[in-house]
Structures are given as C-alpha cells and as structure tokens.
Amino acid sequence: MNKTDEIKNTQEIIEGVLIISYKKLNKKLYFLLLKHKGGFWTFPGGAKDNEDNTIKDCAQREIKEEIGLNIKKEDLIDTGIRNEFIYGLEKPIRAGKKGITYIFVSKIMEEKFSSFHNIEKVEWLTKNEVLEKLEFEDIKNLFNKAFDYITKFSVF
After folding, report:
1. What's residue 156's pLDDT?
2. Model-level pTM?
3. Which of 143, 127, 131, 132 is nearest to 20 (CA)?
4. How do 13-25 and 98-107 pair as beta strands?
5. Rounded to an integer, what distance in angstroms lies between the CA atom of residue 28 and that of residue 6?
C-alpha cells in the first residue's frame, strides 16, 4: 500500500441522511419536498452531528430542524440505498472529503409544518411533480430508487 492509499483509507467520512416522506391519498402517492431559501428543491436531510448517536438520530433531528416534525425512530425506514460521493467546493470545509448519504423513507400523515432552518416552502407533490422540481440528477436518481423501494415493499 502506497502513501496515497493510506491517506484515502484514513480519510474522514461525513455521513448524512435524506428522508423521502410520503403519504397516500385517493390511491395516489405524494411526497414531501422542501424549497430552500437558496431557491433549490430537495427532501429533508443533512449531515450527522456529534450529538447524533446513530444515523437514525440524525434523520430524526434533521426533519425536526427543517420542518418541525417529531418522527418516531420506528417510522423511519432505512431503505439500504446509499449515495457515496466526494464533496465539491460548495462547502469549503468539506471539500475533497468523502460523503455517504443514507436514504430513509417515512410515511407522514401530519399536515402542519413549521418552516425552520433555511426552508422557504413545504409541498406535497406527485412523483412527476417532484422530478420536475428537483435540479440535481443524483437526487432524482435517489428519489427514483426510494420510489421503487416504497412500491416494491408496499411500505404505504
């Protein structure tokens, strides 16, 4: 093993979550999408903090911070879907570090949301509407995988 391999193997990994929340209404699935104050649409989620003992703790905290919902751990389902990547320059403190995003799904019936943490808008949308609003291809791909998981395992 050369020096470069050793550096790669000891590189800090930043873990995070993306929570695909959904509800079924009139035999149709709707998904919770957030519009950040920066103008882009995405799902609740973010990086694991020191206060989070587990990645599921992170998912619980992120959805509480972003839209004010208290989700029980048992209502957060780990899909097994992962997204591994290297951070770009958008967040200089993380640039060049490896990231792993864990994808959770959660059925939500709550209709009252509080916008916090840089969130401008919260909407329930159909699959096609979600795909139209999402800008980033990697998030679209993760959403499609989560959609397949939800429909395949009938977690609704």
Report:
1. 55
2. 0.87
3. 143
4. parallel
5. 50
